[in-house]
Amino acid sequence: MSRALLVISHGSRREASNTEVKTLTDKLAAFTKDRFDFIEAAFLELAEPSIPAGIKTCVDKGATQITIIPYFLAAGRHVAEDIPEIVDAARPDYTDIEITIAPHIGQSDFMAEFVANTAISSVK
Amino acid sequence: MSRALLVISHGSRREASNTEVKTLTDKLAAFTKDRFDFIEAAFLELAEPSIPAGIKTCVDKGATQITIIPYFLAAGRHVAEDIPEIVDAARPDYTDIEITIAPHIGQSDFMAEFVANTAISSVK
Predict the structure, then answer these.
(1) Could you report the per-residue pLDDT of B41-99, keeping only the tens digit for each?
(2) Cis-peptide, bond into residue A92, ω within 30° of zero
């Protein structure tokens, strides 16, 4: 069994912004190696790879479980509708793969502590 | 000396989204009480209070130091230009107050660990 984490962000016309997300994805591995075998990034729009392409990459690399985490702060239409619809459209192609969508990061129980640590470290 | 933390988010036409940010701000107090005396929220646009109103509230409550943290993932125009410009325009009104802008949360050194913890807790 191989477990993938797929980080989905909005995507930007600014390539620097997309690179920031890919850099974050690379850093994630150090913190997730006990739970996920590898990590991929995908974008809702304006950048590549797309979400279906990201799912396909995970499967091609041997994933049998894919956890999708939306890198979004607010539960707007993208989080509530667009991402689930795109993922659901891909499911029939991978009926033997377990694909789950985690809460978007804005809803994380760890957010308050994270923002606090970020604010405190900025003034030390 | 009284130290305030002012959390700035984009603001949304969806009131639920603005409420999410205010709820987060309330939760922050538990993690920041050793460093900040109180916490306020303000919005760049589409919601109240505005950034100048948020700064004024901090000062009215006795803040002599205000740390502004942009609750934004990407270093787009809002983070790079709009927020600094609005804050700079307010500075002349508060020449005896130390106002600093922390890095936006997307740039935080703690982001990778935070996203990792969020993803891992979602699959446990």
Answers:
(1) 999 999 999 999 999 999 999 999 999 999 999 888 899 999 999 999 999 999 999 99
(2) no
Backbone angles phi, psi at B88, to 5 degrees: -60, -35
The 8-class DSSP code of residue B50 comes to B
Instruction: pLDDT band for A17, please (50, 70, 90 cuts).
Output: confident
Of all residues in chain A, the percent with pLDDT exceeding 90 is 85
d(CA A30, CA A38): 10
CATH topology of domain A3-123: Rossmann fold (3.40.50)
Residue (of B118, B17, B110) closest to A71 by Cα position: B118
Inter-chain touch B9–A73, beta carbons under 8 Å: yes
Give CA–CA dist A42/A22, Å, rounded: 9
Contact A105, B118 (CB under 8 A): yes
Tell me if A112 sits within 8 A of B41, measured CB to CB: no
Nearest residue of B to residue A29, measured between CA atoms:
B116
Q: What is the ipTM of this complex?
A: 0.94
- Using only C-alpha atoms, chain A has a radius of gyration, in whole angstroms, of 15
Could you tell me which residues come within 8 angstroms of residue B73 by beta carbon, excluding any fewer than 6 positions away? A9, A71, A72, A73, B104, B105, B106
Q: Does B100 touch chain A (CB under 8 A)?
A: yes
Distance from CA of A93 to the nearest CA of B (A): 23
